[in-house]
Structures are given as C-alpha cells and as structure tokens.
User: What shape does this take?
Amino acid sequence: MKIGVVTFPGTLDDRDAQRAVRLAGGTPVPLWHADTNLHEVDAVVLPGGFSYGDYLRCGAIAAQAPVMQTIIEKANQGLPVLGICNGFQVLVESHLLPGGLIRNENQHFICRDQILEVENTSTAWTNQFELGQHITIPLKNGEGGYIADSETLKRLEGENLITFRYVDVNPNGSMNNIAGLRNERGNVVGLMPHPEHAVEAGFGPDMPAAMRSGVDGLKFFTSVIHSLVNA
Amino acid sequence: MPKIIVEVMPKADLLDPQGKAVANSLNRKGHTEITAVRIGKRIELHYANTPTEAQLEEAKTFAADFLSNGVIEDVVAVTVEA
Assistant: This one.
C-alpha cells in the first residue's frame, strides 16, 4: 500500500510519518506541496509542523497549495486522509473538517504524553482500535484549541463525528474536549496529538509498563492499510 | 499607490490573548481608563491602477474565504484607498 506524506515548506514531522507508515507495513511516498499529481497513492498523511511559517493563520496557506487542491478533490471521492496537528489545521482550513483551531487557552506551547479516548472506530484510520479504548500519544502544539459554533458542535455530537477526546486534562481549552474529528464518510480524520511519534518501542511515550514503550499510534497506520486491503 | 485595505478582527466573543496582554501592560503604565484592547490585522493589497468595482468585489470574496477564517475572525472593512 502506497501512502503519501505531504511536505510543505515548514513541515516538521514528515520523516516521522514516513517511518510510521513503513513500520505499519506500508510504503511511504513523499509528496511535495507543488505537486498536483498524487503519484497513485492509496492514502495521504498531512503531517505536523509549521507550514509556511504559520503565516496568516495556521494551515491557511497550505490549504491553497497545488497538492491540496488534488487532495481535497480526491478526499471528497473517498481517498483516506489523516491530518496530524498542523495537518489537522490544514484540513479545517480546507473545509474537509468543520470548525477551527485557536491559540491554547493557557497561552503556552504544550508538549506532553496525552491520553485520548477513541470515540469512533468506523473510520479508515481508527478501525483497529476498540471503541472507548484509552490510548497515549504525544501532544505538542501552540494552537490546538478546537472551536466551532454551537450548531456545528451539536451536529458533531449528534452525528458521532468526534473521533478522539482528551482524557484527564483538557490541555488546550478545546470545546467538548475534542482532540480529533472525522468526516461523515470516515475517510478523513484530523487530530492535534501525534500518533506518528508513538510507533516504535524505545522511542514512544512513557507507559506504566516501561519508559518510552508506547506504540498506540501505530494502529492509525495499520487501520488505513486494513481498510485499503478490505476495500 | 492605490490600495485595497482589508481589516480583520478576532470574533468579539473569542478571547484575544494578545489584546489582553497589551491591555494589562497599558494599565500598568497608568492608563487605567482603558478597559480592553483587541488586536486584529490590516492587510494592504497594492494595485498598479485604482481598483475597479469588480476588483473590490473580488477582494471582498477572498477577504472572506482566504484572508480571514469565518470560524474565528470577522472581516470588518474592505475599502479602496486611492
């Protein structure tokens, strides 16, 4: 399975996302922001970082990049797309997911191992999780406060589109403890925390069993491969 | 230089941390009559010739869907400055 990982100017975690794809058994394909051709990939990851220096608004300029026009078109036809951190910001700026992300409530950049509850497993990126499962993956952002108007929030709750919620603490003031969302079809998922940093024992978050042993992020990538194989 | 000026402000009901920090600093300097500060953006679009009505309309469109994000911001003015 070929999984594209987009690099915008200022992207930070593209190499980690490529490594996560490889560890899950897929073949990572680097995609460049100026590409309009997706090189026949079966899915796309929009990784974290500071695309275009976060100029104008986080993710706003990346949402206008040539590669995004093709990704938006294909995502609307069912191509699996995962947006991580800045990638989530790009997804909301592209209107592939609703709402917006603003500066963390406490004004600080946050970097911590974060527990999330998996609220929806009917997506291309979460089908290998158990419903209600708690997972631990790193969170690192300055503008991760999720907001939406009350009508949108009601729809997100009613249509079961909230895919991950923060557990124990709400680190950034996100409404309804929202950490991640999916679209109606379940092919597009975006979240602020970083699954690609929790894919290999020895390099993941600290877990009760052992330091740096957390690999909960790997299931995002095995999920998409599972959904593609069974498509 | 003829310009179109786009002014964008954070939505009134959202916390504006930048404005709050500046308000606190002004208050500390003794300007206690200032009750709040809000900080937005002024975006200047430069044109070779005075913008036409159609160009102004075009600017209003991309001001709303690219220069600002309606979820968190409001476009408060789009004006021609000859």
